[in-house]
Amino acid sequence: VRFQLSPPQRPLQASAVLRRVSDEQKKEPLSSSSQQQFDSQPTDHQPEQEPQGPHPSYTGQGGQESEDYESEEQLQHRILTAALEFVPEHGWTAEAIAEGAKTLGLSGAAAGMFQSNGSQLVLHFVSQCNTKLSELLEQEQKLVQQGEAEKKPTDQFLRDAVEARLRMVIPYIEKWPQAVSILLLPQNIPSSLSLLTSMIDDIWHYAGDQSTDINWYTRRAVLTGIYNTTELVMMQDSSPDFEDTWRFLENRVADAMKMGNTANQVQSTGEALVQGLMGAAVTVSNVETCRAVR
Amino acid sequence: VNQVFESVAKKYDVMNDSMTLGVHRLWKDILVRKMNPSPGTLLLDVAGGTGDIAFRFINYVRSVRQRQLQQRLKHHQNLSWQEIANSYQEDKRNSLGDSQVVVCDINKEMLKVGKEKAQDLGYSEGLSWVLGNAEELPFDDDMFDVYTIAFGIRNVTRIDLALQEAYRVLKPGGRFLCLEFSQVSNPLLSRLYDLYSFQVIPVLGEVIAGDWKSYQYLVESIRRFPPQEEFKAMIEDAGFFKVDYQNLNSGIVAIHSGFKL
């Protein structure tokens, strides 16, 4: 599940800002409206544009409306990404978005495209972090498959994944409580909840969770609990490099593993019991059959 | 159209209050709140004659600026008294944070009334008054952060030209905002509204401003104006993106918004 801002509409064509997308020119500031063709540096002339560069898109498609032009949604994502730089100073607000728009060469009034309470900025950030986490876990998995790294035991894997994800919040930690309160607003709960569950799903997927039974739910609930509580601990942790938080995380994961073993034991006891009963039933029916035959 | 507004200029504000029973103030407040301007914004208010939107904009920006300065002070709590006092000096000179409004109107009388009002109410900085035609603005390209036109666009002969001009003078990323009478969707309300418009308003016009014809014209121009969706399409044709509208009072008035992207 990916967070979507709005359904992409018609391509933005004759405009200053929405220019033909190309890898290198992504970060350049934009020039006047009379220019259709975008030339970044005189030495680096790119006559033909490649289709959409490696810009993370949050839509279902590749994020492209027509071959070369950027859509409103992609522009909005760029503005929000640029706005993140101003969050430590202005918080998760329309001011941060306005400053972000200005760095892209747009008027600050472009922040009017977004909700004034900063919801979209927070959701965009969370979505971006989740994507980064997925990519990280994907890369790790590749290394393991190629034999260049060892497969981590589950508890280590979970600890590392949660730590990696939470570390992405550290640059914004001062304004993070504000972000959490925004995520908990009633109108944002569906989006924030789906982002959270899909992130947890991702972690379990890469941890090698193959279960299709009740364990699937319990595992997710447990990890969600670990993640949320660790996040809260991190927000008021003042130890160097958040060591208290990681120690808390280690303990919670250890608890969860212990609990998991107990659950497994209960389950295998149950299975053994059922097998015993089945065996008894088969034995009884055999005996009856024998008796009947005799 | 010009003559209509020459004769009504002086009584414009009074008529507005009596026709809409003062509600037009709320509509304009909502418009500025929706704009949510930050200090440093350059606003062009077209057909803004008597300055209603301009004054609200200045008030809003001033209070946002106050808040900004207070926030800054919170972070400065470890500075010395002298340094804090010095920062007051700088900030006082910049109470608007470089925000500016240019009020543009086709009618000299309206601008005159606006200037007098500004003086009476004590608005001195950040305001400019320019004579101009919405279909052909006397400004260069890519100049303004926000373009507003409140209850003015229905009086423009070629609305498409006005929209194109709006697009031209806005900076990339700039916002177009239009506050205008529109179509009421609710049939019951629509009948009451019609009754009120055609029976009451011209009478008020005669009684207060001594001008029946102008206010008859006003009501008819409201009816002639395209409905919300159609106007939205016109705005999109001019090149704006993320065009949307918000109905106020179930459609009596609508705020259309678009961005130059």
Automatic annotation (TrEMBL), chain A:
Location of region: Disordered: 1-74
GO biological process: ubiquinone biosynthetic process
Keywords linked to the UniProt accession: Lipid-binding, Mitochondrion, Transit peptide, Ubiquinone biosynthesis
Biased composition (Low complexity): 31-41
One term of GO molecular function: lipid binding
Annotated Ubiquinone biosynthesis protein COQ9 HTH domain residues: 72-102
Signal peptide (residue range): none
Main location: mitochondrion
Cellular localization per UniProt: Mitochondrion
One Pfam family in the UniProt entry: COQ9
Pathways involved: Cofactor biosynthesis; ubiquinone biosynthesis
NCBIfam families reported in the protein's UniProt record: diverge_rpsU (TIGR02396)
Function comment: Membrane-associated protein that warps the membrane surface to access and bind aromatic isoprenes with high specificity, including ubiquinone (CoQ) isoprene intermediates and presents them directly to Coq7, therefore facilitating the Coq7-mediated hydroxylase step. Participates in the biosynthesis of coenzyme Q, also named ubiquinone, an essential lipid-soluble electron transporter for aerobic cellular respiration.
PANTHER family the UniProt entry points to: UBIQUINONE BIOSYNTHESIS PROTEIN COQ9, MITOCHONDRIAL
Quaternary structure and interacting proteins, as annotated: Homodimer. Heterodimer; two heterodimers of COQ7:COQ9 come together on the same side of the lipid pseudo-bilayer and form a curved tetramer with a hydrophobic surface suitable for membrane interaction. These two tetramers assemble into a soluble octamer with a pseudo-bilayer of lipids captured within. Interacts with COQ7; this interaction allows ubiquinone (CoQ) isoprene intermediates presentation to COQ7 and facilitates the COQ7-mediated hydroxylase step.
Family: Belongs to the COQ9 family.
Protein name stated in the entry: Ubiquinone biosynthesis protein
From TrEMBL, chain B:
Gene Ontology biological process: methylation
Keyword Transferase among record annotations: yes
Key word Zinc-finger present: no
Gene Ontology molecular function terms on file: 2-methoxy-6-polyprenyl-1,4-benzoquinol methyltransferase activity
Highest taxon of the lineage: Eukaryota
Function: Methyltransferase required for the conversion of 2-decaprenyl-6-methoxy-1,4-benzoquinol (DDMQH2) to 2-decaprenyl-3-methyl-6-methoxy-1,4-benzoquinol (DMQH2).
Oligomeric and partner information: Component of a multi-subunit COQ enzyme complex, composed of at least COQ3, COQ4, COQ5, COQ6, COQ7 and COQ9. Interacts with PYURF; the interaction is direct, stabilizes COQ5 protein and associates PYURF with COQ enzyme complex.
Annotated PANTHER family: 2-METHOXY-6-POLYPRENYL-1,4-BENZOQUINOL METHYLASE, MITOCHONDRIAL, METHYLTRANSFERASE
Protein name per its UniProtKB record: COQ5 protein
Species the sequence originates in: Geococcyx californianus (Greater roadrunner)
Lineage: Eukaryota, Metazoa, Chordata, Craniata, Vertebrata
Gene name of the record: Coq5
